[in-house]
Amino acid sequence: MVTAIGELAASHPQTSSSKMKIKKIYIEGFRSIKEPLIISFENVNALIGPNNSGKSNILLALHSVLGKNWVTKNTFSEQDVFKELYDQDITIDIIFEEPYIYEQFKGFPVEIPRIQFLFTRYKIGESKGQRRLEKNCLQLNSKPVFGFAKRPAKGESPKLVPIASIPQDLQENLPVIYISSSRNLKYQLPRSQNSLLGILMEDINKDFEDENNKILVYQGTELEKEISRIERFKDCISEAIRALRTEEFESLEKSIKTNALQQLGFDPETEADKLDLFFNPLTSLEFYKSLELFINEYDYSINATELGSGFQNAIVLAILKSFEERRRNGALFLIEEPEMYLHPQMQRSLYKTIRKIGETNQVIYVTHSPNFVTIPHFNEIAIVSKNENGTKIKKSTLSFTNELKNKYKKELNPARSEMFFAKKLLIVEGDTEKLAFPEFATRMGLDFDKVGGTIVEVGGKRNIIDFLELALSFDIPVAIAYDTDSSDFSGKKDEEIEYNEQLNNYAEKGVLVFSFEKNYENELKDFYGEPLYIEYCQRFGRNKTQRAKLMAQDNEIKIPDFVKPIIEWLG
Known about the structure:
Mean pLDDT: 89
Low-confidence stretches: 1-18
Number of helices: 18
Number of strands: 21
Strand order of the largest sheet: 9-14-15-3-16-17
Strand content: 15-25%
Structural class: alpha/beta
Largest sheet: 6 strands, mixed
Helix content: 25-40%
């Protein structure tokens, strides 16, 4: 089990980077995930699939081990174990794009390319059967990472020992921002750990503490003096504390100090210098992180956390946009359903923001919207499903080359991206069949949407194979319907015959292949007979796409026999 991901991990340059990026994750035994789930990640990643398939559990696994300051055995419970099986362990194993450089002793760096969290049980001893959590730093070959037993001395051969746990500063250097489907604003306010505003406030505080950040301070009525903001802040805090130091305050402070000295075995009268205990004010960062967001409505102020879910969602996404504008880098974003509460135009806008954030950070999100997946970036898509053995995942088996990306780029639109959400996919050349077939299905009492069937037109016969290969690479059940005599191959009959043969050969790969004699319109004419077909054409107009749809809607017009097998397969 432990060696599986080591065998899969490709080697990479052992260099440090200020931006920590996850290359691959291995999850086993966590919630709906029974068997090993191995996922490779890009900068931007979309997890798609049916409800209750385990998409959110992938985010939760990452958040459980990377999104908290202290990860202990109490981070997990028996409810987190697959079906709460007694003998089932939880393994969460993470490989970084570049090793984390850990300075156990200053000037003596150690490379950590991989970390592992193992929620298991003691096998022997007094604690046998009780749960425990192992936290391991591993090499790519699954062997432990070695550190120094003590600071290496000059001229002395250092003694190496396995690093006993995962260094805390490793986790602190990978801020994890989790935006759940609840969209509760309080989790993104400055005081919350690894919140959007908290991270932005740290930047603001660094700028504030810069000695070159000056402010003019008035002295008397006309004189003014330029000093640093941090110096001014300290002066103001000192004045505030002096005002707060009432007799009662100082009495309490002295009482706590006296009792503490006694508890430690010191004489408060003669050994008061052994412990200097006093109340200290907030730092500038703590002030920033104590701020709350308020909304003014009709001269009435209300805390933004008390607003409705839709409004809170808007504020969270506004903060996300601000994060992108400030070009913060090195964070890991875990986002549940970014499309929530947004109309299509704003979904597309938010997707652009996510792509921008992904240039300097890493984003993993769960979505049900084709506005958040794009065909050119098919390498970023993971289709999640579940069977009796738990959650499964499927990424494309196609090599993501610039040539292939550019080929798909011109075909970009959300309607075509819907193919990734399909349980069954029918690929057609153009809009004629795409608009007509659903109308026939309605008359046949079938509903494509209800069963997850999707028709995708690919803008011409020459594009069919590209989309077909993409669907097959994701194991999407697929069929094609094409014209044997297409205008795409006008004057190139031999080339079209060869292409038709290629399409027909896909039947050997499990593709259902439907072909029309010459073209769809010609098949209709043969089925209805030329006089009746001409009558229908005159009745429904000259535009062949619109005409095909109106003909399919008309209950008085017989459903063609050659269409029925296509409709029945998809519906």
